[in-house]
Each structure stands twice: as structure tokens, then as C-alpha cells.
Amino acid sequence: MGTSLKMGTHVRTRTKKPSPQKRIHVFGVDAIGLLVAHSLAGIPNRPPITFLTGSRSGFHRSEESERRIEVVTDGISDARSGFDIEYDHPYIETEPLYSSVGSSDPQIFDRVDTAERFRLADELNAVRATSAPELVLPVERSPVGEQTGAADTALDASRDVMRNEAVLPDFEQGKGYSSSSSDDQDFISNLIVSVPAIHLRCLRKIAHRLNKESVLLFLQNGMGFIDKVNEQVFPDPQTRPTYIVGVVSHIAARTKAYTVVHSGRGAIALGVMPRGEPGPIHSLSTSARYLLRTITRTPVLAAVAYDQMNILQYRLERLAIDCVIHPLTAVIECRNGELLANFHIARMMKLILAEISLVARSLPELQNVPNLQNRFDPGRLEFYVVSVARRTSQDESQMLQDIRAGRDTHIGFLNGYFIRKGEELGIRCVMNYMLKQMVQAKQRSVSNRDFERLPMESQDSLVLAGR
Questions:
Q1: Phi, psi (rounded to 5 degrees) for 247
Q2: Starting from the edge strand earliest in sequence, which strands make up the sheet with 49-52, in order?
Q3: Same domain assignment for residues 341 and 426
Q4: Residue 31's domain spans which residues?
């Protein structure tokens, strides 16, 4: 039935603003990325969620693991489905965003491109099939995956040796998921990035789908990676997306490919990184406001937005904790809780935190903050370190897992950040520098040991391969 208007009636028209793009893309399927996606899927009027991940032919996941994401909290399982997948994004990078080795002479796999890596994987598979048991490459398997066949195992083995691989397990096309190719080239409005900071260079694969109207939420440990992203991924400030950083205190770990145990409830502190001078919330892009509203109305995440000065202090506090627990457990090869049962480690912790405290209290951007000296007092930082170590006493740090697998670590964005800031301020962080060098030396040692065990194109390997 049509609507009629009397003559002379004044009609006021209002231009309807375009609704924000509600789809949220998630780059990375680690424990935090899966937990965030699962939590977003449980809110009323849930947003459409798409995972950006890699895919390899010959990899077959069980239908059950493809169909849903499962989060276990206090022994109660909650599975949710309805996620979209873009599965054609390459996830192997020949160079990390920031080399934790710091050497001008990269290791052999730093110089091997993607095609060559897969060729080596095929040769490794052939050698393993015909070799004696003692020639089989020992691999430190991740507890989150399951072996699914010979081809799967062989490529996983080569992948673990190649230390520059991003932690981006692949979703395959399966029941309950709609899959699409990256050829769609759809514009990305909201992107949650949970891959380790060392692998943020992978963002270059999708940088053409992002612009100044996009928003990126970074959920990584460490500081200093934003500068690297600007330098290597988004060098043009005019087209650079809006950045939001998140400080996560939730404790979660994957037990299977898409199963997460949420063992410790926490919160997420969010802060918008300003392009220039800090501005009011209404000056943000539509996508940034939408993503902030969506994340903060998710009860499980307990996310709260803070201004720039407060989020900087939260990040520094979290960084101080990670600068102690991650490298010490990696060097000593122990669980987090074991740090508290050793007097010698306690002495090292105090010296490391004394340097971190001095740098944090000397930062020019914090000089006008009230109560700065007390907030970053070494004793207060030590209290937080001990508390986190107790809460996660049975856990192994991500850095320890990376070291065992021969992967690059994010030490450059942990202790390396305070070392660089200390140099700018004229403060010598000798303990942090020594700890950083020890982690890098251990990583190099493990990588070299694994490389020596890898069958190469020698006469013996050719004979064993039947050539």
C-alpha cells in the first residue's frame, strides 16, 4: 500500500549513514585467538567471524575438529560453530619480523624460500621411508596437534625444524564451515591479530585488503612490534589502519587443534594507538568504534578500554612479567612454577627487575604520571612476577616451547625493548642483555643441532633414498 503526502507538506530527509562492516577477521589460531573468536560467537547478535589461515593439500583434519571450536572452563566444555575460513593465505615466511638471533649471517633456512622448503620436506619424507631407524629426524612434537598420516608427519617434522614458521595451523574445508579462497580480495574492516609478534610480517600477505578505515587489534606479548609493522607492512601513514593493542591476562592453552582449555580467567586491557595527538573516542574510525564496542560487550573476555597513558603502563607491567618468566624458563628449561623454588633464580629475578624498573621510571612519556615511582617499584613488579608464576606453575612458557622446536623467539620484543630504551636513556641493562644473549645462543644451538640431524643432498642420503 503506497503512502500519500498532502500538497505543501514539508518532508525532511535524513541521509542514512552506511552501517559499519560487521565481519571480524581473525589472523592466527593460537589459544588466545581461538578463545576470543569463541567468546565473540557467544554474544547476542554475534558478528560474522572469518579465520585467515594457511592450507596445504594432503592435510586432513578430523571432521569433529573442523566443525567447531571447543573451550573447556572448569571442566565444562562449550563448543560453538559457524565460523568462516579463508584458507589460501601462505603462512611460511623466509624471514621473521625481528630476528631474535641478531646475526648478520642468517642460518641456512633463512635463505631458503617456500618452494625449496617443501622440496626439502619431500626429500625428508623419502629418506625417512627408506632409512634406518637411527636416521629418522627426532622432532619435538607440539601437544596441540595429532598425527594424521605419513605425509602429515613428514611435513610437520620439516616445519618444526624451520624455525621461522608462523604458528598458523590450517583449517581445511569441513562440515560447519564455509570456506573461501583468498582470491576474493574482500576488504577487511576489523582484524584481530593473535599470531606471535615475531611473525607479524605475515600481515604483508593481506596488507592490500586494509586501509585507513580498517582497524587492527594486536593481542601479542611484547613491545616495539608496532614500529616494525609500520616500517615493513604499512609504511605510508596516510593509508595506515587504526591500531588497538590488547594486554591479555587470561590463561589459555590448546590441547587439540581447535580445543582450548581456559584455565585462568582474566581481562583484556584495550588501548587505541593514536596516529598523532591523542583524540576523543568520536574521532576514531567507524570500524575502530565498532570493534571496541563488540569486544567490550563480550562477558568472558572482560575487556576494558583505556586511554593512551594508562594502556602504556599496563603494557609495561605485563612486559616486565614476561621479561622474567619467558627467558628464564627457556634458558633453565623448567616450568613456570619452578622459578620460585630456586634461590639463585630469585637473585637473578631481582637484578633483572631492578633494571626494568629504572628504565620504566625514566621514560619521558611517563614523567607526569602520578605515583609513577611506586607503580614500577622493583618490589611491586616482583610481586606480580611471583603471582603469575604461581598461577601458571604447571605451564611451560611459549619461549621454552619455541626454543625446543628450534623456532625464532620474541625475545627482541621483550628484554630487547628495555635494552633499546635503556640505551636511549643512557641506562645499561647488562642483566637483560646477558639474558637476551643466552636465549639467542640456546636457540642457535638447538637450530644447529636439528640442522645437523636433517638429511641433506649427500652421497649417503642419495643412496638411502634409492637414487
A1: -105, 110
A2: 178-180, 84-86, 49-52, 24-27, 190-193, 215-218, 242-248, 268-273, 303-306
A3: yes
A4: 24-112+162-306
Q: How many domains does the chain have?
A: 2
Q: Which of 245, 274, 306 is the last residue of a domain?
A: 306
Helix (H, G, I), strand (E, B) or coil at 40: helix
Co-location of 322 and 235 in the same domain: no
User: Do the Cβ atoms of 108 and 164 come closer than 8 Å?
Assistant: no
Please identify, among 270, 287, 306, the residue that sits at the C-terminal boundary of a domain: 306
Q: Tell if the pTM clears 0.85, that is, is over it.
A: no
Beta strands across the sheet bearing 259-264: 76-80, 69-73, 259-264, 251-256
CATH number where 348 lies: 1.10.1040.10
3-state SS assignment for residue 366: helix
Same domain, residue pair 317 and 257: no
Closest by Cα among 187, 34, 56, 206 to 121: 56
Contact between 252 and 38 under an 8 Å Cβ cutoff? The reply is: no
376 Cβ partners below 8 Å, 6+ apart?
316, 317, 320, 356, 357, 360, 361
Q: Residues 6 or more apart from 213 whose CB is under 8 A from it?
A: 189, 241, 285, 286, 287
What radius of gyration, in Å, describes the C-alpha atoms of the chain? 24
CB atoms closer than 10 angstroms to residue 179: 17
Distance CA 268, CA 288 (A): 16
Distance in angstroms (rounded) separating the CA atoms of residues 357 and 351: 10
Q: What is the pLDDT along the chain (467 residues), one digit of tens a residue?
A: 444 444 344 444 444 443 447 899 999 888 999 999 999 999 999 999 998 876 543 323 434 345 589 999 999 999 999 888 886 554 434 344 544 333 333 333 333 444 444 455 555 455 444 444 333 333 333 333 333 344 343 334 444 433 333 333 333 333 333 444 444 457 899 999 998 888 887 888 899 999 999 999 999 889 999 999 999 999 998 899 999 999 999 999 888 888 999 988 999 999 999 875 555 555 788 889 999 999 999 999 999 999 999 999 999 999 999 999 999 999 999 999 999 999 999 999 999 999 999 999 999 999 999 999 999 999 999 999 999 999 999 999 999 999 998 888 999 999 999 999 999 999 999 999 999 999 999 998 888 877 666 665 554 544 444 44
| Cα–Cα distance for residue pair 345/333, rounded to 1 Å | 12
SS3 430: helix
